[in-house]
Design goal:
This protein is mainly β. About 0% of the residues lie in helices and about 55% in strands. The strands form 4 sheets. It has a 7-stranded mixed beta sheet, with no helix packed on it. A 7-stranded antiparallel beta sheet has the order 2-3-4-11-6-9-12, with no helix packed on it. A hairpin with a 3-residue loop joins strand 2 and strand 3.
């Protein structure tokens, strides 16, 4: 097993006033040649958007984009005809494929919106763009893994154009879970949303991440009440 620890305070950071962003990988004006990606995981942005502000219309192509709101309401509109609001407890995916234009705004003028925006390089290029969105139930992730992203349209979670599986869990202190990979050649990027967690004896704190390669399963212990996002992804 090979692991790489990414401490929260080593991430890139940019505060634009309307947008306060932490970058796990090189993005925009933040560049670190040692942090370009982890396997097909290219972007993990931890964003806070001020009331009423957001990203105007802009294009994407050949990228799998997953948005996970952590607080507040995000309004999405795109060139495929989707106009949606995604909120805490929702997960959205968009396969940009041959090209799509979209915008994202904080719907509310009295509170911030906090979200994770994640980009994966696609399995196949130039596919027809598609959109997916689901709402999660808290009880489905309490002290167990809830699958929120999958390559299979008939499986749990939003569908993407990549052989990747995301799971989220909310664990009570002292709870232990085991995660078995779908493909032993995949890697896992574990991102601690809240609390303190140990993964294969590596201790992690809030917003720390651990990249794991060459391991078929993970042993996870919640050292405190904690929330965890696991991203199992191809490494090539």
């Amino acid at each position: 097993m090979k692991t790489t620890l990414y401490k929260a305070d080593t991430r890139g950071h940019a505060n634009h006033g309307w947008l306060n962003a932490y970058h796990s990988f090189s993005f925009a004006n933040y560049f670190d040649p040692k942090r370009m990606n982890f396997g097909v995981l290219r972007v993990l942005n931890d964003d806070t958007i001020a009331p009423g502000m957001g990203f105007g219309k802009h294009p994407h192509d050949n990228m799998e984009i997953i948005t996970i709101p952590l607080f507040g309401d995000l309004e999405h509109e795109d060139s495929m005809g989707n106009k949606k609001v995604i909120k805490e407890g929702d997960v959205q995916s968009m396969s940009a494929g041959t090209g799509v234009v979209h915008s994202e705004y904080n719907k509310n003028r009295d509170k911030e919106v906090k979200l994770l925006q994640i980009w994966l390089m696609p399995k196949k290029r130039n596919v027809t763009p598609f959109y997916d969105q689901i709402s999660l139930k808290l009880e489905d992730k309490k002290n167990k893994f809830q699958q929120i992203v999958s390559p299979n349209s008939d499986d749990d979670g939003v569908t993407i154009n990549q052989d990747a599986w995301f799971n989220i869990t909310e664990m009570d202190a002292g709870k232990e879970l085991e995660y078995n990979l779908h493909n032993p050649e995949n890697g896992v990027y574990a991102f601690v949303l809240e609390g303190d967690i140990s993964i294969n004896n590596e201790k992690l704190n809030r917003r720390d991440a651990l990249g794991i390669e060459a391991s078929e399963k993970l042993e996870i212990i919640a050292d405190t009440n904690a929330k965890l996002l696991l991203m199992e992804i191809p490494m090539a």
